[in-house]
Each structure stands twice: as structure tokens, then as C-alpha cells.
Amino acid sequence: MENILPARPHPRDGNSVPSYLQPLSFIERLQWRLDNDPPKQKGLRTREKLKLAGARLLATRGIHELKAGDVSAEAGMAEGSFYLYFSDKNDLIRTVLREFQEMYFDLQVRGGGRREASRFDSIRFANLVWIAFCRANSGLIGCLYQFGDIDTEFGKDLSDLNLRWHQRVMRGVRRQGGPVAAMSDPELLLVICLLGGMMDDLVRRLLISPDARLLEILAELDATDVMLADVAALMWMRVLAPNEVPHGELSPNVDKIARALFPA
Fold first, then answer.
1. pLDDT bracket for residue 3 (50, 70, 90)
2. Percent of the chain at pLDDT above 70?
3. Which of 49, 106, 122, 155 could form a disulfide with 148 if both were Cys (CB 3.0 to 4.6 A apart)?
């Protein structure tokens, strides 16, 4: 997606997410598109307004509390207008979350590391983009997994999307070489899926279902999202490139962890 708004990074991630990936908020993107590049047909504009209203309510209430009448009211329309464009609330949820899926896959591809950077810098950049994206869309991320449990077809699509991303990462690992490149595709894919699961669990415990003990640990370390991305990158490196010393500017806390994980 094009850069459509000025970069407004979260205070915990500093200026580390570049402007070409901004805005990270799906709702801000929908609002900008409606304000600046709306569909020419009135019916399509109305549908976009309902999608935006639905996205806002999903982000704050979740899928179980969403009602068609509330979506119409949020969009400033009569309740009957909703059923001209969506068969029921699940139709709206599916429509909103599918577009949200497309956005976050596109963002992962465009923010999934930089080839000119070192392996470590590339991994930590991708991690930071993922954490920042989830922070900007935590309510909708939770809805993805909730709806995937309810709607079998949507759940399969979500699983397929994650698999596509893991396969993309696997191809990148093979290009960079190293001991793990000798693994078979299923072996390497399993390793990458487990590493990806670590990142999913991190954002779940950080943002979606906050883990009080984890938050206490982060407070003790005065940890920012940048630090989390760095430490996670060290874990990825320890598995995928155990003989490669990470190169990059690190905070004192992260440098201490790096020296423990990579004593050489």
C-alpha cells in the first residue's frame, strides 16, 4: 500500500518504523481512503462507510458484541441500510477482516526485512514492524483469531496466509545459507513456524490478552518495542545462524543478552 499519511510512530517504537509503511492502523487507512479517494458510486461509498464503522466497533468491542444496528448508527445511517450491503453481521465481519488480512500480509512483505542490511538488522526490522502493527491494530488482531475459531473457512484462510508468510521466510533463509539451509523444506518450515509462533505469542501476551507477569518483567527492564524486537531477533539468529555474530547497534541490556547467547 502507498504511504498515505504522515508517519506517527507509537512512543514505544521511536522512529524505527519508516514512513513508507505508515499508517500502521487499518482504520486510519480506511478513513483516509474514504476522505481522499472515495468510490465514485454512491452505493459503494455507503458500503465503505459501513465497513469503516464496522472496523471501529470490532476494534473496540470484538465480534461477539457487534450488532448491525450499532454499525449503522456508527456510520450515521438507518439500520435498514446495513442489509442493503451485507446479509448479516458475519458478512460484514468477514469482509472487514479479509481486507485487514490483505493489509497485514502486504505490510509483512514490504516490511519483512531489508536485503541490504545484515541478517540481524533485517530480522529485527521485520520484528519491530510486526510488533508496531499489532500495537496499532490490537483489537482487530484479536478479532482475526476469534472469528477464525467460529468461521471454518475464514480460519483456513488465516492459516493459509500464515503458511504463505512462513514459506516466504524459508526461501529467504535458504538464500542466505548457513547450517540450517541443509534442512529439508518440511524440517526448516517447522523451525520457522515455531519461531513465528514465538512472535505471535509475544503480541498476544503483550497486547491482546495482557500477561501481568510479562508486563512486570518488561517494566523491570524498562523495555521498549525496539528492545523486544532486538531480543526476538537474537533468538531467531541463535536458531537460524548460530555461527554468525549479530552485528548492529544494541542497547546495554540487549548487548548483555547477545553476549550470553553468542559468547564467541
1. very low
2. 92
3. 155
